[in-house]
Design brief:
about 325 residues; 12 helices; about 15% strand
């Protein structure tokens, strides 16, 4: 009798497991069944917002469900990142993250309430763009030499904007000041959109911008391009010199990636990676983003995760060398 009961228990357990597995597989196969939220942790108008809206439109078409871009600015991207980290791990909330919130903020901001390794799953690299050094037309300079000359004649009077303490623009500005032997005042903003707008308006003098938000302001003459923080010129703006050829450490391309909360089922993560990769590899999207200085390329989720770890190490060394923290 005991043996029969044990067999019945095992059969019941196997049946229950099979039913549960079938239910999970059915749910994953039907994904997505409702709109997906894509959080951009900055305000409208920045590079990440441009990439997110391209992804949202094309992914929505292929998935058959709307992908809704939601801007959640603040704390150099950490507010939006935390919102996604605390969301349900069901594939319906994603983060279009920048270098800042994934590899810099956890090393700079005190009391940050998320862990990149424990709270997020890397899905796909969405694009990269060299930081474009621009100056306000009101500053009166046409090239880097003129800016350096002006800064040396007025130490501490010129200012450079950033998307927040510890952001790539902050690091690039601090690096330039160190390498060129000049003093500039750091003015942090809550996002790149307002930083580039205020630089164009002459509120600040210089900004290391993502290329998409700066390009229209260059065309209408409110900004002057002084160079790209890269070892190569950008095809989108070949007239801007490669700053890393002069100052090797100024090779600071910003990158954007799509992340989900940790714990999303692997089948859904794989589906999302395929969809994102298909969008980014389409010739239409490549041309659309390349025209604004955003470069795309195929990378597996595992390779992207490894890349994020390498970037953490790179920026840790820069942050320590420059003495950057959330107060400067």
């Amino acid at each position: 009798m005991k043996i029969i009961i044990q067999r019945l228990q095992r059969s019941a357990l196997a049946l229950a497991t099979g039913v549960l597995t079938a239910a999970v597989c059915t749910a994953q196969a039907a994904y997505p069944e409702r709109p997906i939220r894509l959080v951009v942790p900055y305000g409208p108008g920045g590079t990440g917002d441009v990439i997110a809206r391209v992804l949202a439109q094309k992914m929505g078409d292929s998935l058959g469900q709307a992908v809704i871009v939601e801007n959640r600015a603040g704390a150099a991207g950490s507010i939006g990142a935390l919102n996604v980290a605390r969301a349900e791990a069901d594939g319906y909330t994603l983060l279009l993250a920048y270098t800042s919130e994934m590899v810099i903020n956890p090393q700079v901001q005190k009391g940050i309430n998320y862990s990149v390794d424990q709270d997020f799953a890397p899905i796909a690299l969405a694009g990269s763009t060299p930081l474009l050094m621009v100056a306000s037309r009101n500053t009166g300079v046409q090239n880097l030499d003129e800016l350096i000359q002006l800064a040396k004649s007025r130490p501490g009077e010129l200012s450079y904007a950033s998307a927040g303490p510890g952001s790539p623009a902050h690091i690039a500005g601090a690096l330039l000041a160190r390498e060129a032997g000049i003093e500039m005042l750091h003015i942090p903003y809550k996002g790149g959109g307002q930083a580039v707008a205020d630089t164009a308006a002459g509120v600040t003098n210089v900004y290391f911008s993502g290329m998409p938000p700066a390009m229209p302001l260059l065309r209408d003459g409110r900004l002057v391009a002084l160079g790209v923080a890269s070892g190569e010129v950008s095809p989108a703006l070949p007239s801007a010199p490669a700053l890393a050829n002069r100052y090797p450490e100024l090779d600071l391309s910003g990158w954007f990636g799509v992340f989900s909360p940790k714990g999303v089922p692997p089948a859904i993560l794989e589906r999302l990676h395929r969809e994102i990769d298909a969008v980014l590899q389409s010739e239409e999207v490549k041309r659309q983003l390349a025209a604004q200085g955003v470069q795309t390329g195929a990378m597996s989720s595992a390779a992207f995760a490894g890349f994020v770890q390498q970037e953490k190490e790179k920026y840790a060394a820069l942050i320590q060398a420059l003495g950057i923290n959330d107060n400067n």
